[in-house]
Design brief:
Blueprint lengths: L2 H31 L7 H23 L3 H16 L1 H9 L4 H24 L13 E2 L10 H5 L3 E2 H19 L1 H11 L1 H6 L4 H28 L10 H11 L4 H20 L11 H19 L19
Antiparallel strand pairs: 1-2
Length: about 325
């Protein structure tokens, strides 16, 4: 196996594994850029995965191959509404945002399993008949070397996630909405003085965050796991949050970090195929993403300055 063959295995698998992390990290960016800590990304991903699988199982006979794609939209809407619980607690009631996020994670885990048992009569679902499958991009996959590495055996959702990162960059840094978003996260009193409704911006941002994380969970369920149980999402939301911090709360940085963590996750999938690491015990490859997360955040990320008002509830007239 030559170097090109190794890249043709690693890179498509990394793109495949990273897509849910990219969507979720971008969602976390909206919330945290507005000043609201979002530990609940894990719970939103979990509820998005539940919604996607439940919808697909219930409607796949009617909708066919379109069912998993429509389920992603449904998951986004459901998780946007679900995220209002975090918004109300953190913004209106001024609760501790970390505690609120942790509570939402527990709620999502318990509620999703409860609903699965109520709907399907057991603790986990059957596998869906239609998935978001890997594909070869027409024409681009025929390009020598590059086509095989970057445009073959990758689901469409991976390319959508990467394109969305650039779209989010444009929204955050080149539009009036993005300017207001960054203002309420850095200096909400100054933004309020200029006529920006701080709490309204934060509500919108948390709902966008919930929608994106729901899409991340739905993409994971519809393309990777294929079914749902209480352990379907096991740490991916926290990896996405780490990617956001690693990327210094910047859309492109968060995407790059998510791709890095996706690569680390992919080692557990393809490790046995690679001559360099095939003799490493599988359990070590499974924990590699979390070890690399710790190393990245403590040793290589450098100084990462969060938005100055992150985690601080806004009270009109108070500094």
């Amino acid at each position: 196996m030559n170097f090109i063959d190794i890249l043709a295995i690693i890179i498509p698998t990394a793109l495949y594994s990273a897509a849910p992390l990219v969507f979720t990290a971008l969602g976390g960016l909206f919330s945290e850029r507005s000043g609201v800590v979002n530990i609940a990304l894990e719970g939103f991903m979990l509820f998005g995965a539940f919604t996607s699988i439940a919808f697909t199982l219930l409607f796949q006979d009617t909708l066919g191959a379109a069912a998993p794609w429509i389920s992603i939209i449904v998951a986004a809407v459901v998780c946007a509404v679900f995220s209002l619980l975090h918004a109300v607690a953190s913004i209106s009631l001024k609760a501790n945002q970390v505690v609120s996020g942790v509570a939402l994670n527990f709620l999502a885990a318990g509620l999703s399993v409860f609903l699965i048992k109520k709907i399907f009569g057991k603790g986990q679902t059957d596998f869906i008949d239609f998935r978001i499958n890997k594909m070869d991009v027409p024409f681009l996959s025929d390009i020598p070397i590059i086509g095989r590495i970057f445009f073959s055996s990758v689901p469409l959702t991976s390319y959508i996630a990467i394109g969305l990162a650039f779209a989010v960059w444009y929204v955050v840094y080149k539009t009036p909405f993005g300017l207001r978003l960054r203002a309420v996260g850095e200096h909400p009193m100054a933004a309020d003085t200029m006529g920006v409704r701080v709490n309204k911006m934060r509500y919108i941002s948390v709902m966008i965050s919930g929608a994106f994380a729901g899409v991340g969970g739905a993409v994971y369920a519809a393309s990777i796991s294929g079914n749902f149980s209480g352990g379907t999402i096991s740490g991916q939301g926290f990896l996405a949050l780490a990617a956001l911090i690693f990327g210094k709360w910047h859309p492109i940085g968060a995407m790059g970090a998510a791709l890095f963590f996706g690569f680390a996750q992919s080692l557990g999938i393809i490790g046995a195929q690679l001559p360099v690491i095939q003799d490493i015990p599988a359990i070590l490859l499974t924990i590699a993403p979390y070890v690399l997360t710790i190393l990245a955040l403590t040793g290589f990320v450098g100084r990462a300055d969060a938005p100055k008002a992150l985690g601080i509830p806004y009270e009109k007239g108070k500094r």
